[in-house]
Amino acid sequence: MPNEDLTGRSIAGYKLMSRMGEGGTATVYRAEHPEHGRCAVKILKQRTRNDPIAVKRFLREAGYGAKVKHSSVVCTYDFGEEDGIDYLALEWVDGEPLGEFVNRSGPLAPVLASHIVTQLAEGLGAAHAVGIIHRDLKPENIVYDHQTQTAKLLDFGIARDAQEAASDRLTRTGFFVGTLQYVAPEALSGELVGEKADIFSLAKITYFLLTGTQPHPGRSPREVFHQLLTQPPIPLNEAVKDLRFPAELEAAVMKGLERQPDDRHATVQEFAAHVARGVEAVDEPAPQKGRGFFGTIKSLVKGRDETK
pTM of the prediction? Predict the structure, then answer.
């Protein structure tokens, strides 16, 4: 079946201007709206519109996203169905996936990493406050604008309501949801997870921002799966040769990566605050290798100030 292209068409008042990308079930368009201006509109693909599970997942993503109102979460404007087409209209956000930024710039300066983590924790806290567990936190689901240093969380496609009844599940028991490299160990059995699973994923993101590497560096999905269940993560200060962090910052990240949920922080905000305290312990520009663009600029400015 040829790819459907709805460019030029108006759906519920959203004029679809151009295709921006597509996933397995939906296509994303840049759109214009009289009230919201530029938007991103997700359209469920034609071949999935007759799949009741796919439609239910799409509407669930829209409904969960609409419940979360926070500046660090991409805003959901509208969703529904028109002329047999299911749509989801979202805030247009300038930037790129956070993972792409880190891969290009290298490990980030701790102060910048903490700034990003704090924003994400606030957005997640808003989701948790209304009973929504994200379950798929990863750098690809975060839009980052390096000009303003703002990060926004998106994609509630596999989120769950903490009050969800077992009969309402869309995933079979025994099958985990999420991205293996960032999923919490307790999710691997396919059981329903809580807020602590999002803390683990945020800690993994923090580790990646600081080091550019993973605490469970398996060479295959099978190996990563085994490491998550049976092996401790590589300590932060052993991740990259010659890359060192204050003990308090390492303690914060490693506590978030504890295998047992009860051993982690109580909330995502508590985790972010612990990371921030660890960053405050930095008495000189750090890390010393691969600081990333903002870390390099900060160290240069500090150096100039000290010579005055």
Answer: 0.82
